[in-house]
């Protein structure tokens, strides 16, 4: 859609879907946090009142984005990225610890989580680097630079410890693959995931034995005409064993006990039935209650403010990471399907916008936005319904939280601003 001024050229379909998702999210925050003592939706001492305040700040951020020249974001992308890295480093000295993670700055009226800002700035910096005329993503040197841009903030976030937020940065690999990153890196990522899981389940010794047996089988059954050098295979086995050893090191010394318990529950690592049952009642309690809340909603749901598990606080953190469970209980199967369809339409619309970009920077940033949002969405839903372990990943535009709502909004609207500039230039 085109028109005059910074608002007239914006894609209003995306804006409408954004506002609808924020509104439905706020309705569910209201439902999960309302008490008999509350009287006004503008009571900023309540969670739903604070979320309205955060939305107001998000609107101010959006207006600022829309009134800034599009070229500003590309020109200063590297500076934004460095600022976010400095903020992440500052957490080790000035950070505030909440729920076991030192991930926030206490600003008095507001807790700032720089990892949310860093998602946006990393997407900008990656798009800036990849779109540079001197960058050739098919060369090893530039591939390494791109990996450093993605992994540096993740490595700073991991020891907070916040493995959930660190994991999100890996979504930006989809941008690399979209722009011609060699696909064998995707194979390496899949192998790393398999090695991570098998190391936790069976240990490094059995992983090593398995790799040796696999190599022997390959050499035994390969065709005589196929030549496979021995040294590269040995090198792959050595690197895999070293990675397996690092998995154990990270698992024991970087992850906290609550993280280890979640993996133990998800991968059935704990063999002691009594200990496993204890984990289910503690670490697995959220997921269990979330599943029961969704199941109790049936097809049509119990109705707005009628969720007994929601009202009884059966699901901890239901206004943040587990907010989707309140949708299932109060709005039922129809409600959950509606929310999933809205997110799906929203993502498809953003993909359409990204594909029509003529500017390399705008297209790459657009896919960065899509990757981050989709990764959040799938991990959060999978976590709530028990397919994935609980790792503290919010549902974009839905979950309670100031940093999340503000920076998710700015992340999106920077892309919409870039897209509107395409229309302004008549491209």
Class of secondary structure makeup = mainly alpha
Give the number of domains.
1
Low-confidence stretches: none
Tell me the helix content: 55-70%
Sequence of strands across the biggest β-sheet: 1-2-3
Total DSSP E strands: 3
Average pLDDT, all residues:
84
The rounded Rg comes to: 23 Å
User: How far apart are the termini?
Assistant: 13 Å
Characterization of this structure:
The protein is mainly alpha-helical and 427 residues long. The protein is globular. The chain contains 19 helices and 3 strands. A hairpin with a 2-residue loop joins β1 and β2. It has helices at residues 5-8, 12-33, 47-67, 70-75, 77-94, 114-131, 140-157, 163-168, 173-178, 184-202, 204-221, 230-253, 257-266, 273-281, 285-296, 308-311, 323-355, 360-384, 402-424; strands at 96-98, 101-106, 111-112. Strands 1-2-3 form a 3-stranded antiparallel beta sheet, with helices on one face.
């Amino acid at each position: 859609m085109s028109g005059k001024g910074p608002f007239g050229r914006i894609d209003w379909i995306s804006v409408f879907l954004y506002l609808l998702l924020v509104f439905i999210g706020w309705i569910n925050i209201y439902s999960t946090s309302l008490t008999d003592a509350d009287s006004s939706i503008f009571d900023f001492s309540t969670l739903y009142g604070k979320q309205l305040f955060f939305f107001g700040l998000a609107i101010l951020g959006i207006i600022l984005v829309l009134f800034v020249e599009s070229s500003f974001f590309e020109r200063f992308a590297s500076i934004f990225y460095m600022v976010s890295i400095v903020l992440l480093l500052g957490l080790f000295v000035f950070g505030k610890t909440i729920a076991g993670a030192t991930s926030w700055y206490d600003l008095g009226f507001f807790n700032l989580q720089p990892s949310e800002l860093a998602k946006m700035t990393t997407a900008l910096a990656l798009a800036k680097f990849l779109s540079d005329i001197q960058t050739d993503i098919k060369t090893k040197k530039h591939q390494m630079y791109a990996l450093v841009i993605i992994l540096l903030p993740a490595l700073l976030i991991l020891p907070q410890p916040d493995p959930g937020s660190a994991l999100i940065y890996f979504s930006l690999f989809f941008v690399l693959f979209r722009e011609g990153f060699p696909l064998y890196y995707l194979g390496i990522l899949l192998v790393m995931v398999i090695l991570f899981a098998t190391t936790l389940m069976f240990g490094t010794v059995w992983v090593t034995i398995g790799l040796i047996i696999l190599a022997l089988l390959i050499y035994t059954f390969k065709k005589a005409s196929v030549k496979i050098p021995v040294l590269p295979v040995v090198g792959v086995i050595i690197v895999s064993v070293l990675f397996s050893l690092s998995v154990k090191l990270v698992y024991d010394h970087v992850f906290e006990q609550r993280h280890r318990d979640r993996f133990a529950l998800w991968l059935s690592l704990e063999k002691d039935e009594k200990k496993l049952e204890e984990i289910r009642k503690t670490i697995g309690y959220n997921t269990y209650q979330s599943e029961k809340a969704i199941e109790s909603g049936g097809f049509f749901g119990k109705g707005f403010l009628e969720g007994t598990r929601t009202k009884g606080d059966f699901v901890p953190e239901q206004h943040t990471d587990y907010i989707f469970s309140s949708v299932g209980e109060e709005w039922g199967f129809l409600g959950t399907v509606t929310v999933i369809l809205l997110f799906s339409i929203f993502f498809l619309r953003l993909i359409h916008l990204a594909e029509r970009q003529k500017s390399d920077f705008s297209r790459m940033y657009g896919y960065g936005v899509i990757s981050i949002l989709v990764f959040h969405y799938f991990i959060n839903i999978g976590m709530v319904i028990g397919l994935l372990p609980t790792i503290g990943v919010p549902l974009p535009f839905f979950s309670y939280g100031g940093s999340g709502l503000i920076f998710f909004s700015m992340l999106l609207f920077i892309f919409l601003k870039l897209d509107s500039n395409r229309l302004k230039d008549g491209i």
